[in-house]
Specification:
Keywords: Disulfide bond, EGF-like domain, Glycoprotein, Membrane, Signal, Transmembrane, Transmembrane helix. This protein has 13 helices and 92 strands. With 1259 residues, the chain is mainly β.
């Protein structure tokens, strides 16, 4: 059964998304055959059968129940009406209203106030500034799971409002400031034919809204968790499909803070990150290697006292609003003067251009982050940035200096007056008539008085939250010298006082009581000790204490506020548990910024097993610190070296707590919970700007979210996807895992067998698993810990409890699944975890000795044509040499030739002793089963008859699985007389380069090679090869073939007798995989038709060819073509002698140069490096359908993305159809060529028909 809107636009009913069997109540487009869902009620609580029922209670509350009993979702309406009606409007809004109400738009509740992942016309996305109520979009977790993901979209209010796309706790893409008719960071789209939009910002609310220009058109905005984008779609009635109209981020420059402080992102330049005028890169070498995180600094230092200047930057997105100050009553001229006077002001601009260009002011303090350059005069804004006076244009030295000196003096004086005025206003708000130091039994504190600590650091008194319009009054403690009156503790959080009749006093028993009108108690202490002379004192630590005035020990407290914290932790405060009494001290967030009552976000000690700090949302774990390992928490990066605070975690028989102290008394720092953002933040005080600056935040990234990667998953923020399985594990549900659904986690690749013996492998630099199922012992050493875990078949992992003592001490063991593991990169972070796996999965790594084993399979697999392993190695060769030396020449000549020339490893195999052929260092690792399998596969590859040898794809499967292998037959490798003459001794000075491979004298159909690695950029190891199927190498008739790995990464075969070092019989550069390297030709030999083109990997763990290819298209005039299967995906355009006319000019790149050769013999593209110390590569990405260029960052030891193609809709082949012109700077991007009009659609151009994402146009 469904509820359908009056005009049948939308329907409400139950549905199951994708492959899920769960049932949800949702709204979808009624006439859309794909049933596109726009809203979901029970996102968090699905129904697992068809017993769901929606009904309205007599009070007007809407309830979704299971089996007519259990409620899984309900509305929060509090108004009670006699005739409640639930109605689905034609807008897609589900509303509850009073049927007798004559106003049809008077809603008691509406779904538009609680959006899911979709924004519809008429919906407000923003904040009610009176109540703090926030409407924002949250993406579905995956296509078949509508529960909230971490991608959100809404209004940001720091400084001045803008729209923001967030990934977890990180800003991802910001719109820039609202300029009155558009956002500064988004191209002007007013001229589009589909929708209008507006941004409303007044005293009551701030929100974004859009409406349709034509009611017959359908359009929606939706968040996509997988792609991390916000997309707008328009309905195409002809093909009954949704066509994408736009998306955010639209290019790399939309990514927040890409170019660092004072950088300017210009997508039309290369590199895209440029410094603002009068600025230069802070770290030039990093900047050249495409690491822009350091941003830019002034070319010449500022000198505010002698006078700085401002220069205009045209057509840019406004900087980040974090350090923004907005004055809506100041014009531009006054704004410049105000910014000039404040030495911390780095830029200013108009706030609202629609009021005549001189109406308001925005000023930025600190580094200017997230600036983007536009090309059109109708886009962006004019920003005036502060530079040294010598950098300014059109200045008059003497006049400017005098003006700036006067401005500085006025600024200082005005600043002083403003501070005095502000403090005065605060004092009036607090009605502070007098201040006192302590309160005795005969005294009281009334509203209007304050109690100030001896050093003047803190004050106690009555206050109302800044944004509150009510008369509610609270008793609290705040920083006395902070003009913003930052509150750190509240007494009557739950019971506010209505009016100014509050009185704080001490009863004769010593009990502290807060009363209303001197009668009704709204809060009191629970002190039970009775003293003759009780004194209430506010200490300079911010701690409010009750003590006996006759007690000479000032630290003997009968009661203290530090035992009952609110949302803030101060230095010296203990957050933790008294194990003797179970008394728990934990932080709890304010419900919102004008309501100090407790929210559901709390922070304290978790006592299950071994203690750690935990951030909870209600009853759910949200973030865990990991175990305390002696010097810090395993899940928090080492911050001991910070200049502000020290910290400690105490765990003994009587108590467990976390505490911190300041390194200097002149510093101020506090920890506070934020309910709205669901974070724990640390702030430090900046005395110069008189503001609190964010120092750190928890969770700090996506991987800090509790249990993100499921059981036995490892979250690594430096990898994509961030969720990886632990070594020895695989995804439990591979299909879901590939769609970023990680809740199922991972399971062992091979089942455990405790009776026959399991092993443990080491996972380094990780956060400890959740402590739900641990066991701890403080004195047991690591060896004893392993033995204890080995004996218990339920023990899945163990570790040291304290790593500060060199070898460590203590033991922690985990039972059951390992949840909430996070990977760190630095050796100073995380801990070593030993996890239980099947004995066959163990990898006992021993530094350099195991590097060969690690490199062997993946490198050989990546080179495809040379994928082969024949473990005939140095140990075996030495044995054969010894045998040869022990025999005299006469015996050797008379012996049967086949027996004398028999492959030794084959003999050992038939004798059942193949492991004797192993390298000594490989055998020492203990990974004998893997070694024997490699030998087995090697022997299959060198069988006498080529048709019996496995194909290349079969070898790949054999190396990556543990399936049973067929028995090998007699190999085709036979040693002739003097079999080792062709092997130069490692000490032989006459031997060729050590990165060469020399051959044995062999039958025509066989070749045995040995590679000795030389330190170089590329490493490759190959032992043994058959000519057919396995290696895929055809040498022709070469007497002395040599296999050589060049420093370019090219693997070549040449004739050792050939005097030309570049004359190759075969080269890997002719058979590329997914990567193009410097010097590699991508193109076609016109004489033979031989085509060298890149082909992507099928996916990140399968190097078999995908359907994305990159090469030269020679239809007509040649150009570079990126294909998806047989379809063109992106085309470079013709070569014009200097570049491709369809690609950005990259000649100015500091990293690489390139060329396109087209003659009678060849047509190919090639690139080269401008500096040999730089590394760069091009690679195809099957998942993203893109060709990406990466450069190596030597400092961070990572590859950084520097270029991607296609880089926008206009790079997609044929996007605008015949006779269409794609212009990224216009909206819509598709325009008709001059003298052309759309082939389909109304003549007035109000609506264009889109077919499969392209415009169909006609002359």
């Amino acid at each position: 059964m469904t509820l359908v809107s009056n005009d049948e636009s939308f329907a409400l009913g139950f549905f199951s998304p994708g492959t899920s069997n769960n049932r949800y109540l949702g709204i979808w487009y009624h006439n859309d055959p794909m049933q596109t869902v726009v809203w979901v009620a029970n996102r968090v609580n699905p129904i697992n059968d068809s017993t769901g029922m929606l009904k309205i209670e007599s009070s007007g509350r809407v309830v979704l129940q299971v089996q007519n009993t259990t409620a899984v979702w309900s509305t929060n309406t509090t108004a009670s009406v006699q005739n409640p009606v639930l109605q689905l409007l034609d807008s897609g809004n589900l509303v509850v209203r009073d049927e007798k109400d004559s106003n049809p738009e008077h809603y008691l509740w509406q779904s538009f106030d609680y959006p899911s992942d979709t924004m519809l016309p008429g919906m407000k996305i923003g904040i009610d500034l009176r109540t703090g109520f926030q409407r924002r979009l949250t993406a579905w977790k995956s296509w078949d799971d509508p529960s909230p993901g971490d991608l959100t979209y809404g209004v940001e209010l720091e400084g001045g409002p803008e729209m923001g796309l967030w990934k977890g706790l990180r800003k991802y893409a910001m719109s820039g400031l609202w300029l009155g008719d558009r956002f500064s960071g988004i191209r002007d789209v007013r001229s589009n034919s589909i929708y209008d939009y507006n941004f409303v910002w007044n005293k009551k609310e701030a929100y974004y809204i859009f409406s349709l220009k034509n009611k017959s058109v359908l359009s929606r905005v939706v968040l996509n968790q997988t792609e991390s984008v916000r997309k707008r779609y328009a309905w195409n009635p002809e093909n009954q499909a949704w066509d994408m109209f736009s998306k955010r981020p639209s290019d790399d420059c939309d990514i927040y803070g890409l170019c660092g402080p004072n950088g300017n992102c210009d997508y039309n330049k290369l590199p895209i990150c440029q410094c603002l005028r009068a600025f230069s890169p802070k770290w030039p070498e990093k900047w050249k290697s495409s690491d822009y995180s350091g941003g830019c600094i002034h070319n010449k230092p500022l000198n505010c006292q002698t006078g700085d200047g401002f220069i205009p930057i045209m057509r840019v997105k406004s900087p980040d609003i974090t350090n923004l100050q907005v004055n809506k009553a100041t014009n531009l001229k006054e704004c410049e003067a105000e910014c000039s006077k404040n030495c911390s002001c780095m830029a200013y601009t108009n706030l609202d251009f629609t009021r005549g260009g001189d109406s308001s002011c925005a000023m930025w303090y600190g580094g200017l982050v997230d600036i983007k350059q536009f090309q059109s005069d109708s886009d962006g804004m004019k920003l005036f940035i502060r530079v040294s006076a010598s950098e300014t244009e059109h200045r008059k030295k003497a006049d400017v200096k005098l003006a700036l000196i006067l401005a500085t003096v006025i600024a200082a004086f005005s600043g002083f007056l403003l501070v005095v005025s502000y403090i005065s206003r605060r004092r009036r708000k607090l009605q502070a008539s007098t201040t006192i130091d302590t309160i005795s039994r005969s005294e009281s504190l009334t509203d209007g008085k304050t109690l100030v600590s001896n050093g003047g650091s803190f004050a106690l008194g009555f206050f109302s939250p800044d944004t509150s319009n009510s008369n509610n009054r609270y008793l609290g403690i705040w920083y006395h010298n902070d003009p913003n009156q930052t509150v750190v503790w509240v007494a009557n959080r739950i019971n506010p006082i209505n009016g100014s009749t509050g009185v704080l006093k001490i009863e004769s028993s010593g009990k502290i009581v807060l009363q209303v009108q001197n009668t009704t108690a709204v809060w009191s202490t629970n002190s039970t000790v009775s003293v003759e002379d009780p004194v209430l004192q506010l200490l300079d630590s911010g701690n409010l204490v009750l003590r006996d005035g006759n007690d000479i020990n000032p630290e003997n407290h009968l009661w203290q506020s530090f035992d009952y914290p609110s949302d803030t932790m101060l230095p010296g405060m203990k957050i933790g548990v008294d194990l003797r009494t179970s008394f728990d001290r934990r932080l709890s967030a304010w419900k919102n910024w004008d309501d100090p009552s407790p929210g559901d976000l709390t922070y304290g000690v978790e006592l299950e097993g071994s203690p750690e700090m935990v951030l909870m949302k209600g009853l759910e774990k949200y973030y865990l610190t990991g175990l305390w390992i002696g010097s810090g928490f395993s899940g928090v990066r080492d911050v001991r070296s910070n200049p502000i605070f020290d910290y400690d975690f105490v765990w003994n028989e009587t108590e467990i707590y976390f505490t911190f102290s300041l390194k200097s008394k002149s510093l101020m720092s506090r920890v506070v919970l934020n309910q709205t953002e669901s974070v724990r933040k640390r702030y430090t005080w900046n005395p110069e700007s008189q503001t609190w600056e964010l120092f750190s935040m928890r969770p700090s990234d996506y991987c800090d979210r509790y249990g993100l990667c499921g059981p036995n998953g490892n979250c690594d923020y430096n990898k994509l996807p961030v969720c990886q399985c632990l070594t020895g594990f695989r995804p439990k549900w591979p299909k879901r895992w590939n769609t970023s659904e990680y809740s199922g986690g991972c399971i062992h690749i091979k089942p455990l067998n405790c009776q026959t013996g399991d092993e443990f492998i080491t996972i380094r630099r990780v956060k400890s698993p959740a402590i739900t199922n641990p066991w701890v012992h403080k004195t047991m050493n690591l060896k004893e810990c392993k033995a204890e875990c080995s004996r218990n078949c339920s023990c899945m992992a163990y570790s040291n409890l304290d790593v500060t003592g060199g070898d460590g001490s203590g033991c922690a063991m985990w039972f059951g699944d390992l949840v909430d593991i996070k990977q760190f990169q630095s050796d100073s972070d995380g801990m070593d975890l030993y996890i239980r796996v099947s004995a066959s999965e163990t990898e006992l790594k021993k530094k350099a000795k195991v590097k060969l084993a690690i490199i062997l399979a993946p490198v050989i697999a990546a080179l495809l044509g040379l994928l082969l392993v024949v473990c005939y190695i140095r140990g075996t060769r030495r044995k054969l040499e010894d045998e040869v030396e022990d025999k005299n020449l006469e015996d050797k000549e008379n012996k049967d030739e086949n027996e004398d020339m028999e492959l030794a490893i084959w003999r050992l195999w038939t004798e059942g002793k193949p492991s004797d052929a192993a390298y000594e260092f490989l055998a020492e690792t203990g990974d004998v089963p893997e070694l024997l399998r490699s030998i087995h596969i090697s022997l299959l590859c060198v069988q006498q008859h080529p048709e019996e040898r496995p194909s290349m794809s079969s070898v790949v499967l054999m190396l990556g699985s543990h399936n049973e292998l067929p028995s090998p037959k007699q190999p085709g490798f036979l040693f002739y007389n003097k079999p080792f003459e062709a092997y130069p001794s490692p000490d032989n000075n006459e031997s060729s380069s050590r990165n060469e491979i020399s051959s044995l004298q062999t039958p025509r159909d066989s070749l045995i090679v040995q590679l000795i690695i030389k330190g170089a950029n590329f490493q490759f190891i190959l032992f043994g090869a058959g000519r057919r199927k396995c290696p895929g190498i055809l040498f022709g008739s070469v007497q002395n073939p040599v296999l050589l790995l060049l420093d370019s990464g090219n693997l070549v075969v040449r004739d050792e007798n050939d005097s030309s070092p570049e004359s190759y019989v075969w080269q890997s550069f002719d058979y590329p995989s997914d990567t193009s390297l410097p010097g590699m030709k991508v193109g076609v030999d016109l004489r033979t038709g031989f085509d060298r083109r890149l082909s992507s990997r099928k996916n990140w763990d399968d190097p078999s060819p995908g359907d994305l290819t990159y090469g030269v298209g020679i239809e007509g005039s040649p150009e570079i073509v990126l294909r998806k299967g047989l379809e063109k995906l992106s085309v470079s355009g013709l070569w014009n002698g200097n570049g491709f006319n369809g690609a950005p000019n990259l000649r100015s790149s500091s990293i690489f140069g390139y060329d396109f050769v087209w003659n009678e013999n060849d047509v190919y593209y090639i690139f080269f490096l401008k500096n040999k110390s730089v590394m760069s590569r091009g690679v195809l990405n099957e998942t993203q359908n893109a060709r990406e260029r990466y450069t190596w960052n030597a400092e961070t030891q990572t590859w950084q993305l520097s270029l991607i193609l296609p880089n926008g809709y206009c790079d997609i082949y044929g996007h605008c159809g015949p006779n269409g012109n794609c212009d990224d700077n216009k909206l819509p991007a598709c325009q008709c060529l001059t003298q052309f009009r759309p082939k389909n659609g109304p003549k007035d151009g109000t609506l264009r028909t889109i077919r499969e994402g392209v415009y169909t146009l006609s002359h």
